[in-house]
Amino acid sequence: MSGDVRLVPVAVQRTARVAMLGPATAGIRELWYVLHGYGQLAAEFIESCRALDDGTRLIVAPEALSRFYDGDVQARMHKDARVGASWMTREDRESEISDYLGYLDTLHAAMLASIGATATPSVTVLGFSQGGATAARWVASGRVNAARLVVWGSLFPPELDLADPAAPIRRAAVTQVVGTKDIFATPKIVAKETARLRDAGLPYRFVTFEGGHRLDDDTLRAL
User: Fold this and answer.
1) What whole-number distance in Å separates Cα of residue 87 and Cα of residue 93?
2) How far apart are the C-alpha atoms of 134 and 66, rounded to whole Å?
3) What are the φ and ψ backbone dihedral angles of 85, each rounded to 5 degrees?
């Protein structure tokens, strides 16, 4: 007699990939973690962050742990199919969130150890698109003591308690950035999110730029 199918979690070790720009020395003034969006890879995403690279900060782009062939079925079968990465899906959601928070915590500890700074540099966590929710969760629940959180082209995760006065996310200066032509952050969606943040009493700055669902050099420099 056959039994029921059981899904059993098994912890495994993974090798993550990280792209970096800027000097990895004890003298850096700022440490920036930039988290890519759905379907992107760390190396290509960090190229869109070059406006931050002025020699005083280290820019670190961790790559999400789940890679996939992007495109339609025929494209995915082709040897030259584009590869992207995702921070999570709805499948086994809580485990994926826990895994990437642990990954980012481990990365942060490794970066501080490798820099060897006597004084910890100011940390900014910037997340774009799907990486925006990832960044917010990390600042809210991880071991990074971020001075600033930038959520770009994204919304804050619905499960975060933004109204709690003791919430770790409130220790960071929070900025939300949205392009005026962002097809994913439409005026209606932004208005709803603004009302949510206002009702929660979360101090934050709202920044817009002329453009779509992308990073913007001038806005990066202004941040």
Assistant:
1) 10
2) 14
3) -135, 155
- The tens digit of pLDDT for each residue in 89-118 reads 999 999 999 999 999 999 999 999 999 867
73 pLDDT higher than 70: no
Stretch 9-36: mean pLDDT: 93
Residue 128 lies in a domain: yes
155 located within any domain: yes
Q: In what order do the strands lie in the sheet with 57-62?
A: 18-21, 57-62, 30-35, 122-128, 148-152, 173-179, 204-209
Q: Give the count of domains, the chain.
A: 1
The verdict on residue 130 lying in a domain is yes
Strands (E), the chain: 18-21, 30-35, 57-62, 66-69, 83-86, 122-128, 148-152, 173-179, 204-209
Vertex 193: Cα angle to 190 and 198 (nearest 5): 125
Strands 83-86 and 66-69: antiparallel
Domain housing 195? 18-222
On whether residue 1 sits in a domain, the answer given is no
Beta-carbon neighbour count of residue 98 at 10 Å? 13
Residues 6+ apart with CB under 8 A from 70: 39, 76, 81, 82, 83, 84
Q: Are 34 and 58 within 8 A, CB to CB?
A: no
Specify the CATH number for the domain of residue 102. Answer: 3.40.50.1820
